[in-house]
Amino acid sequence: MDEPERARSLPDVQSLLSAVLEQLPVGVIVAEVPGGRMILGNEQVAAVMRHPFIASAEVEGYAAYRGLHPDGRPYRGEDWPLARTVATGETVEREEIRYQRGDDTHGVMRVSSAPVHDGDGVPVLAVAMIEDVTERARLADQLALLAEAGDALSASLDPDTVVDTVARLLVPRVADYWALDLLRDDGSLQRVGSAHAEPGKEHLAFEIASAHPLEVRIPEGRGAVLRTGEPQLVARYDDAFLSAISRDAEHAAALRAVGLHSAVYLPLKVRGRVTGAMLLGRTARTPEAYEQVDVGPLEEIARRCAMALANATSYERERTTAEQLQRSLLPDCLPALQCGEARVRYLPGGVGMEVGGDWYDVLALPGGRVGLVIGDVVGRGTPAAVVMGHLRSGLRAYAMEGGRPDEVIGRLNTLEHTLGTTPSLATLVYAIYEPARGLLSYTAAGHPAPLVRRACGQVEALPACQGMPLGVRADLRWEIASVALGPGDTLVLYTDGLVERRGASLDAVLQRVLAALGDAAAADLDGLCDAILAAADTVGDDDVALLAFRADPPVAARLLG
Q1: Rg (Cα) of the chain, in Å, rounded?
Q2: Which CATH architecture describes the domain 334-560?
Q3: Domain ranges in the chain with CATH number 3.60.40.10
């Protein structure tokens, strides 16, 4: 074919190619290489962009299609996949881009681009395919957010942690500004959480709430949501809306400083009762306004937040009651001893854990002897604390009547099985120190054996002489073990919360405890207890009770002499 014939056929080829492109279900743009002039674009391009196809434009003109980087920066012309293919021959596959349509709505497109080479392998064209995946992306984001919220909000029973979790979930992922308010019993509002994506504005919401106390009576926004229990979408957060929710010009100016252009107010509801309200807002950082399709998933987040807060608050109230009960059942003070001194510690489990029925006791027994008790009721919360108080009282009564440790524990177990109720399981160690003989006798009922630090600094774990826990059967018997306890020797009793850690070796923690026991200053019994707790890293899943008793050297020496 000569040149005139070829020239006459080019328009025909282009027309044919245009006709083919119009049949495709996705937007297609063809650009020249190396200039970047866009020579073809089908109707789907205009439909996706809601903007006329830009014909005969150089690469710089691509910026008329308004793409947005994740941080909100607009795309430059050279940022687009088609421009990168023109410039370098790069092949781009399924790149998702947030963009502003020609009608100022926002969406997500998926773009692929690739070069087209001539017979000599030289790139002569670049082709981009554009697909609107806004609804698909929105649904995927919503489902991912709901799944993450379900996992995160069920992971803690601490109210403050729940609030922080919601803030991390929503800012800056779906909101640039977030505030959470709860209704007090008197009907007033308390701000419990806020966040802002812009550095330096994190505490702005609390400052506004402090200077302008929140009110339920305002006609729009938070007030309307609290009264009706229905969400409110504010597609345009303008001066008219600000006037409706602010009390005066100063309040309006403070709200304007937040920089919102769109917002959603959501009720917090538990079993149909409104307990608070949540505000999510967008600033210039995220130019897209909230739409009605955003409200449903965000309302579900608010519902889950409300339930998580209600559960955490209820749990915290019950936990506080159980802990107060448990502490009230422990000795207020230790008795004055003639043959040594004792120190005790009680630490409830970490946040989100109920108290576990751990207890200790120190008894001044007849004949100058000392009774030492450490125990742990199986179970948690108020029921465990009640059982603990019952066992402690029973053991004190039997101990004062006399008898070896195994006999006292046996009588206590018999009592458990004669009360007409299902016996509670408990582990404990009961030890008796006789200063006149320098002898310690003890029985362990399913409980870790005592530790000893000798006056010379040597440490050891005493033989376990393990027996079954209390409450297993009525006919149980326990062994008794005896060991010399000389002047200046220190006995340590503890519950398993001291050494048991999720994901940690029990032996490793016990070795740290023994090392701390050996290294601590023997003269300071309080310091010794603190050193043991620090070595064990006692912020764990369970309560910890610790009892340290040191035979007094002068008294013991005099009694032995």
Answers
A1: 37
A2: 4-Layer Sandwich (3.60)
A3: 334-560
Percent of residues, the chain, with pLDDT higher than 70 = 91
Q: What is the pLDDT of residues 504-558, one digit of tens each?
A: 777 888 888 888 888 876 668 898 999 888 888 765 567 888 999 999 865 444 4
Residue with tokens 């009793």: 493
The yes/no answer on whether domain 138-320 falls in CATH 3.30.450.40 is: yes
Pick from 112, 130, 108, 116: nearest CA to 44: 130
Tell me which amino acid residue 305 is: C
For residues 452-467, one letter each, b for 16 or more C-beta atoms within 10 angstroms of the residue's C-beta and e for the rest, the string is bbbeeeebeebeebbb
Token pair for residue 8?
A: 């006459």
Nearest to 207 by CA among 218, 188, 194, 216: 194
Please, which residues have CB within 8 angstroms of residue 168's CB and are 6 or more apart in sequence? 152
Structure tokens at 45: 């391009």
Q: Two tokens at 148? A: 């993450």
Residue 399 one-letter amino acid:
A
Instruction: Classify domain 3-132 by CATH number.
Output: 3.30.450.20
Task: Give the ranges where 281-367 is alpha helix by DSSP (H).
Answer: 292-329
d(CA 304, CA 332): 42
* Distance, CA of 57 to CA of 212 (rounded, Å): 53
Q: Summarize pLDDT for 343-357 with one digit per residue, the tens.
A: 999 887 655 445 667
- CATH 3.30.450.40-classified regions of the chain: 138-320
